[in-house]
Write a structure and sequence with these properties.
This protein is mainly α and 250 residues long. Among the domains are: 129-179, no CATH class; 182-250, Serine Threonine Protein Phosphatase 5, Tetratricopeptide repeat (Alpha Horseshoe), CATH 1.25.40.10. Helices cover 78% and strands 0% of the residues. It has 15 helices and no strands. The chain has helices at 2-8, 13-25, 29-41, 47-59, 63-76, 81-93, 97-110, 115-127, 131-144, 149-161, 165-178, 183-195, 199-212, 217-229, 233-245. Helix 8 (115-127) runs parallel beside helix 10.
Length: 250
């Protein structure tokens, strides 16, 4: 529909925004960014446009640029919760976790019921080494939505950090049952098997993650580590080389 609108009026900023939304949902982030930028050039420079462009930049790993646009969205509308949420994500991407936590807290003041903000905040607590607080935050979310997948995944990581391995394994079994195509859950399941010294099962889990997402750099890296533990050193080196080629820095 937006293509028809643009054919009728090539300067329709709203249609470029709609096109950007569709491309973003398809995972075509560079193209979505171009559409949002075209909308901005045509006059759409509200808080949402800055946030939309920032979201695309975030997905492209351009965290510093994303942070600048999230901050501009907040300058336009100081009560814009998605701007603070995005600011937290960009700061987390930059490993500025204490600042990210403050941004999430501000976002939750404006939108206290948002489970996605709460989940990202729980992850930041883990990044800060506050594992029990992260677990407690995850449990609070799961009391509202027991099938909140990203939170279940993060709860598993917190349990792993707390060395509660069997509970973590139960969580990841639940996650992959709910979503058999959740690559990160298989990768994290592999981490639990590795901690339990069940290395063959860890390898199977990493292979499942890579079947779903062949360019998953972290899964290649973790696969390399467990292949080394299994004495399969040539394959291990190939996996580690692949992870670095895909951008993973150990």
């Amino acid at each position: 529909m937006f293509e028809q609108a643009l054919a009728l009026d090539p300067r329709d900023a709203g249609s470029y925004s709609d096109k950007g939304d569709v491309l973003y949902d398809l995972g075509r982030y560079q193209e979505s960014l171009a559409s949002y930028e075209k909308a901005a050039q045509l006059g759409t420079r509200d808080a949402r446009n800055y946030k939309d462009r920032a979201n695309a930049l975030y997905k492209l790993g351009r965290y510093q640029e994303a942070l600048a646009l999230y901050e501009q969205s907040i300058q336009i509308n100081a009560s814009y919760s998605p701007g603070y949420h995005g600011k937290g994500m960009a700061l987390s991407g930059l490993k500025r976790h204490s600042e990210a936590l403050a941004a999430y807290d501000q976002a939750l003041k404006l939108d206290p019921s948002s489970l996605s903000i709460q989940s990202d905040r729980a992850w930041t607590l883990y990044q800060l080494g506050r594992d029990q607080e992260s677990l407690d935050a995850c449990d609070k979310i799961l009391r509202v939505d027991p099938q909140h997948l990203s939170t279940l995944n993060r709860k598993g990581i917190a349990l792993l950090a707390l060395q509660r391995y069997e509970e973590a394994l139960d969580i990841y079994t639940q996650v992959v049952r709910l979503d058999p195509e959740y690559a990160a859950a298989y990768n994290n399941r592999g981490l639990v098997f590795k901690a339990l010294k069940r290395h063959e099962e860890a390898l199977v889990a990493y292979d499942q993650a890579l079947r779903i997402s062949p360019d998953y750099a972290l899964a290649h890296y973790n696969r390399g580590l467990v292949l080394n533990l299994l004495g399969r050193h040539k394959e291990a080196q190939e996996a580690l080389d692949t992870s670095r080629r895909l951008g993973y820095l150990d």
